[in-house]
Design goal:
The complex is a heterotrimer. Chain A is of the alpha+beta class. Chain A has a single domain (16-160), classed as Glutaredoxin, CATH 3.40.30. Chain A contains five helices and eight strands. Chain A has an eight-stranded mixed sheet, covered by helices on one side. Chain A is globular and about 40 Å long. By secondary structure, chain B is mainly β. Chain B has helices at 3-19, 23-40, 100-105; strands spanning 54-64, 67-80, 84-97, 109-123, 128-138, 141-154, 159-176, 179-200, 203-216, 224-227, 238-241, 247-261, 265-276, 281-293, 297-308, 338-350, 360-378, 400-415. In chain B, a hairpin with a 4-residue loop joins strand 13 and strand 14 (281-293). Chain B is globular, with a radius of gyration of 25 Å. Chain B starts with a helix and ends with a strand. Chain C is built from two helices and no strands. Chain C has helices at residues 2-13, 42-55. By secondary structure, chain C is mainly α. Chain C is flat. Classes of the chains: A alpha+beta, B mainly beta, C mainly alpha. Chains in contact: A-B, A-C, B-C. Chain A binds chain C through residues 6-7, 10-11, 13-14, 53, 55, 57-58, 87-89, 93, 113, 116-117, 121-124, 126, and chain C through 16-18, 21, 24-29, 32-33.
Chain lengths: 161, 416, 72
């Protein structure tokens, strides 16, 4: 019985939540976008950055794409950047999806999952929010319709800092 | 792992298993099992998804052994807010039967069966709950079945556990001179357990177990068994109605695995073993290869083998009078020793033309060819005199029966 | 059946410590492909299983969810 109790408390502590606050510097990385241009996270210091990990085979990721595009359009001028980090093994799959659902924010290709690993990505999609100082502020895992409002709340808060 | 806690945890499954010897206790023990399993499972990010929205219109056709059955099956599924998904299925069989059983004891007949199914899947806090109802009716058989299911992902959603229970209440009737007369009732219960596991990024495996408990009137009211009333005169045969036990319990275990092959192909292997309280042991194995061509065309090839041993009370020819009580006899070829080997192929083609309200739509066609070879069920038609022509074989020495069947599935699918 | 139950209990009792998934969520691309679904077209599988059930003595554990139909 004691063992069972240990187990249960262990479970509760290892519970992953849909959203959580983060701290510490955001790990730096450099990836290539779909036109071949290199993009480095550290270069974006001073702006609020949302790093969205997605893949063409992930249903909720596809669902939130048009909404992310709208968010980018709304907050771009206030100093907000959305980086779409695509983890498809083959970039052709990502391009195929974007041909049908185009977006205006930078889409970077992380085919071997190195950056996803770096960020200890545990769910698809995952959105990491980085403040103007380059520190991790917030993580949102998964996507359900309506959760884009949470994204907006976090972005507004970080833009106000 | 410390020895004492493990012993304590072992006590529960052993106690549960020990109680499971009698069919009526299986229900209780399974309930216990479910409860304990739920206590032990670790939490995880909710990763279960509802089945996708779709509508399918299928034409099915079966032709084999003198039996022709075809008809439609229409399925519509729609979800709401990623929380709930409901489906409805309408199915029909139009039967024209001149099967060997029909020809030996009667004449060709035509029949129609209609089946409705409704179901709903609900994504609760961490689990998916399913509920369904099926109603099948034809002139001499009516079946109402309800089913429950629950499933959950864990271990970082690499593992899925699913449990299910279903209960059917059947009414068996017999058409006598154009009137459908009730002859009995049957109750059928199923308990199932499924576990699927992602092994690598290219490999998944699934294990399933299912126990079926049938009670009541389990035989076909039309079928008869042939017997030799006077062993001194073996050429003379009399036909009598079958006598079946009033219960049938069975266990089936299956293992399935899928392995991804480069460039959108896969190989699937399956094996199932079955045994029941009537003495039947069966096993089947299947291999399937699926391959996508140019992202629009999916092709599939498969081969399957099935074999079973007979029920204890199966007799192609009962050697004497049956007697008044206690003896069970059956002549259903499905309870004999036989094998059924099949191969199949098919494709699904996704159309390029985009429908305004749909994500995609496709046409599929699948063909299966099955060869049935019976070891100890003989073709009783061949020992009969026909229009004055004497029989080619003596009673009990006819060649064993075999036949081939073709199964076709043609369907159009819209995903929206 | 008894052995299967005991095996399952053992598996779950060892799973209490937080297991890190060895296939990361972003590596699930191949598994999401339709060729990796055990059941791509439920309406079609349901019919084929009915064909088998109607002619074979074996029933159960055929990969379909929900209950069988007690059709004559």
């Amino acid at each position: 019985m004691k063992y069972l109790l240990f187990c249960l408390t262990g479970l509760l502590m290892s519970l992953s939540l849909h959203a959580k606050e983060l701290s510490g510097p955001a790990p730096d990385f450099t990836l290539t976008d779909l036109e071949g241009k290199k993009v480095r996270l550290a270069d974006l210091k001073g702006q609020v950055v949302m790093i969205n990990f997605w893949a063409s085979w992930c249903g909720p990721c596809r669902q939130e794409m048009p909404l992310l595009n709208d968010i980018y359009a709304n907050y771009k001028k206030a100093g907000f950047v959305l980086l779409g980090v695509n983890v498809d093994e083959s970039v052709a799959d990502a391009k195929g999806f974007l041909a049908k659902t185009p977006v205006n924010f930078p889409v970077l290709h992380d085919g071997n999952g190195k950056v996803a690993d770096l960020y200890k990505n545990q769910a698809m999609p995952s959105s990491f929010f980085v403040d103007r100082k380059g520190n991790l502020a917030y993580l949102h895992q998964g996507y359900r319709p309506g959760e884009e409002n949470e994204y907006k709340k976090v972005i507004k808060k970080l833009l106000a800092q | 792992m410390r020895a004492r806690p493990r012993a304590a945890q072992m006590a529960v499954p052993v106690a549960v298993a020990a109680v499971a010897e009698r069919p009526s206790d299986r229900r209780l023990s399974l309930g216990l099992l479910l409860a304990v399993a739920w206590l032990l499972l670790p939490a995880a990010v909710q990763a279960l998804v509802l089945p996708e929205d779709r509508a399918d219109v299928l034409y099915h056709a079966y032709d084999g052994g003198g039996v022709k059955v075809d008809g439609p099956s229409v399925l519509v599924r729609k979800g709401y807010k990623e929380k709930v998904s409901a489906y409805a299925n309408y199915y029909q069989d139009f039967v024209s039967s001149a099967s060997i059983d029909v020809l030996t004891s009667g004449s060709k007949y035509a029949e129609e069966r209609t089946e409705y199914s409704l179901g709903v899947d609900y994504l609760a806090d961490r689990a998916m709950l399913s509920l369904g109802y099926t109603h099948s009716s034809e002139s001499d058989y009516e079946a109402k079945t309800i089913n429950f299911g629950i499933s959950q992902d864990f271990f970082g959603d690499m593992t899925t556990l699913a449990m299910g229970y279903s209960r059917g209440d059947d009414e068996v009737r017999q058409n006598q001179d154009g009137v459908s007369v009730p002859v009995g009732e049957a109750q059928k219960q199923r308990y199932s357990l499924g576990l699927s596991q992602i092994l690598t990024k290219n490999w998944i495996i699934a294990f399933s177990a299912e126990t079926v408990v049938d009670d009541g009137f389990l035989r076909n009211p039309y079928r008869q068994i042939r017997l030799i009333p006077n062993p001194a005169n073996p050429g003379v045969v009399r036909w009598e109605f079958e006598r079946y036990p009033e219960t049938r319990n069975s266990d089936a275990f299956a293992l399935r695995t899928l392995y991804y092959l480069p460039h959108r192909a896969s190989i699937r292997l399956e094996g199932r073993t079955f045994r029941d309280s009537w003495g039947i042991k069966a096993e089947n194995y299947e291999i399937r290869y699926t391959h996508t061509v140019r992202s629009r065309l999916l092709m599939e090839l498969k081969a399957r083998t099935y074999s079973q041993t007979q029920a204890d009370f199966f007799y192609d020819l009962f050697p004497e009078e049956i007697g008044t009580e206690g003896v069970f006899v059956a002549r259903d070829k499905e309870l004999s020793t036989y094998s059924a080997n099949s191969f199949g192929m098919g494709f699904t083609y996704e159309f390029g033309y985009r429908l305004p309200f749909a994500k995609k739509h496709s046409l599929s066609f699948y063909w299966d060819f099955i060869q049935f070879d019976y070891d100890n069920f003989r073709n009783a038609l061949l020992s009969r005199e026909e229009d004055g022509v004497p029989a080619r074989y003596a009673v009990g020495e006819e060649p064993s029966y075999s036949f081939e069947a073709n199964v076709i599935r043609l369907f159009y699918t819209v995903n929206y | 059946m008894k052995q299967a139950v005991i095996l399952l209990m053992l598996i779950f009792s060892t799973g209490c410590s937080s297991w890190k998934p060895w296939v990361k969520p972003y590596e699930r691309g191949n598994l999401a492909d339709p060729v990796m679904a055990f059941d791509r077209d439920p309406v079609s599988t349901k019919y084929l299983h009915h064909v088998y059930d109607a002619r074979e003595a074996a029933r159960g554990a055929d990969g379909s969810a929900g209950g069988g139909c007690g059709c004559g």
